[in-house]
Amino acid sequence: MDLLLAATLNAGTILALAGLGLLINEKAGIVNLGAEGMMLCAALAGFATVVHTGSFSLGLLAGMATGALLAAAMGALVIFLHTNQYACGLALSLFGVGFSAYMGVDYVQATIPATPKFSVPVLADIPFIGPALFRQHLLVYGTVALAVFMAWFYNHTRSGLVLRSIGESPESAHALGYHVRGIRLLCVALGGSLCGLAGAYLSTIYTPLWTEGMVAGRGWIALALTAFATWRPMRILLGAYLFGGVTMLQLHLQATGAQIASQLLSMLPYLATIVVLVLISRNPIWIRTNMPASLGKPFVPSH
């Protein structure tokens, strides 16, 4: 059971990072449907960097840079050229799937050094909870800290309130003198860097290997997480662990020889996503109340 809990936290970290990145986008009013493609390209960039340098830190940074670059390119199109956010996001996702598959052919059989081991002294030796909670990669703890920071930032700082106002009413923020489009582009790039970090973590720490399509829908689940969590960072964290737990339960049942078709077990994470979205959609007023008012809407500044 302790191994299942540890694996849940590890798997949930990928979804949490991507979900928090998409939250930054959506709090600023931008819908980014390209998470799947960004994560795949970042996974390849991170893995290739570790193959050639042997540095996991550089691999994670390469993933962040790749995600930020792709997100900024999409952001420039939708923010300054007013192209359709949904179409651009889908195009980015499709591009990332194809581009990563093409460029990653030479890395399918590649190997990287052994993943560094982490543990918190003393606490890691506590029975049951020690191995589960205190022998995780540092990024697992960093993700929790990031969610706490974002919750505080959006609700208790002036900058956070400005970002929220841009997502709610960009016209009012512009009238007050804020550079709405520049701030939106910054938020899109920052959110993309977190999606890229999630992809690089997947290929260098979580697996670690590179294979075509290895993100396997996690980008779409992270997108659903933002609605599931009603655009609140701590709920995204909890939702990520929930979906991560479902994924690990599927693998655990397969390993124990449960008499359930493997195809049905593989469907569990995506089935859980669908069920959650159906339950949420039954209360559209609740969604509209929590969703940023300008989400998905273009902003053209008046002169």
Residues in helices, as a percent range: over 70%
Give the number of helices: 13
CATH-derived topology: ABC transporter involved in vitamin B12 uptake, BtuC
Q: Give the total of beta strands.
A: 0
Order of H and E elements = HHHHHHHHHHHHH
Number of spatially distinct domains: 1
Strand content: under 5%
Mean of residue pLDDT values:
89
Instruction: Indicate the CATH architecture.
Output: Orthogonal Bundle
What's the gyration radius in Å? 19 Å
Oligomer status: single chain
Identify the overall geometry. globular
Distance between the termini: 61 Å
Quick tags:
transmembrane, cell membrane, ABC transporter permease, ABC_transp_permease, transmembrane helix, 303 residues, mainly alpha, ABC transporter involved in vitamin B12 uptake, BtuC, 0% strand
Q: How would you portray this structure in words?
A:
The chain is mainly alpha-helical and 303 residues long. The chain has one domain: Orthogonal Bundle (ABC transporter involved in vitamin B12 uptake, BtuC). Helices cover 72% and strands 0% of the residues. It is built from 13 helices and no strands. It has helices at 2-27, 35-53, 56-80, 85-103, 129-133, 138-156, 158-168, 170-175, 180-206, 218-228, 233-255, 262-281, 284-290. α6 (138-156) packs across α7 (158-168), α6 (138-156) packs antiparallel against α11 (233-255) and α10 (218-228) packs parallel to α12 (262-281). The protein is globular. The N and C termini lie far apart (61 Å). The relative contact order is 0.21. The mean pLDDT is 89. The chain crosses the membrane at residues 6-24, 31-50, 56-79, 86-105, 138-155, 183-203, 209-229, 236-254, 260-280. This is ABC transporter permease. Keywords: Cell membrane, Membrane, Transmembrane, Transmembrane helix. InterPro entries: ABC_transp_permease. Its main location: membrane.
